Amino acid sequence: DVFLDALTSRALREGVIVTISLTIVSFIAGMAIGLVVALLRGSRFRFVRVLGWTYIWVFRAIPTIVQLFFVWFALPQLVPALRGPDFKPFYAAAIALSLNEAAYAAEIIRGGLLSIDDGQRLAARALGMPPMSVFRRVVAPQLVRVVTPTMANDFITMIKLTSLAYVVSLHEILTNAQSQVSLSFRFAEWY
C-alpha cells in the first residue's frame, strides 16, 4: 500500500512534471546552441574553430554541479538583471543544463556532419542551390538520421542530470522523493 500511495502521490507527480519539463527545455536549447557550436568548429577560420573548441572544452571539463552553482549563485552577481525573485531555480537549472548539453550536442552534431560526404554538398551547389538550401535539403535530413541514436542516449543522460538541480533548490522528482522519505522513513517505497 505504501508503494502504491507513493507512486500515485501528488509530490511524485509534481516532481515528474518538473523533471520532464526541465529535460525537454534544456535538451532543445542545448541542441540549438550545440548546432551553432558545431558549425563554429567546422568553420574555415581558425579563430572561429578555436572559439568553438574552447566552448566545448570548458563546458565538458567543468562538472555539471559546478555549472549549476555558478549559474544560481555567481551569475546574478555578474548580471544584475537576474537578481531578485524573478530568477527562479527552474531558470537557473535550465540555463546551466542547456549550456552543458550544448557542449555534448556540438560534438555529436559535428561527428554527424563529418560523416556526410562532401560530394553531396558539392553536387547540390553545382545544381545551383544556395548554401542554406543545401543544408536544409541535403545535409539536415542525413544529419538527423545519423545523430538520432546518439542523441537519444544523450536525452536519457539529460533526464539523469536533472537530479543535480536540487542544489539550486528545484523541487524535481528526487528532491520531492527525499522530502517524502524524511517524513515517512520509507526509503525503498519512495526511491
Q: Identify the overall geometry.
A: elongated
Tell me the distance between the termini. Answer: 15 Å
Mean pLDDT across every amino acid position: 89
Residue stretches low in confidence (pLDDT < 50, at least 5 long) are none
Summarize the amount of helix as a percent range. over 70%
Write the layout of secondary structure elements.
Layout: H1 2-7, H2 10-41, H3 46-61, H4 64-78, H5 89-115, H6 118-126, H7 131-161, H8 173-184, H9 187-190
Describe this structure in words.
The protein is an all-alpha fold. It contains 9 helices and no strands. The radius of gyration is 21 Å and the shape is elongated.
Tag the structure with descriptive keywords.
single chain, 191 residues, mainly alpha, 9 helices, elongated
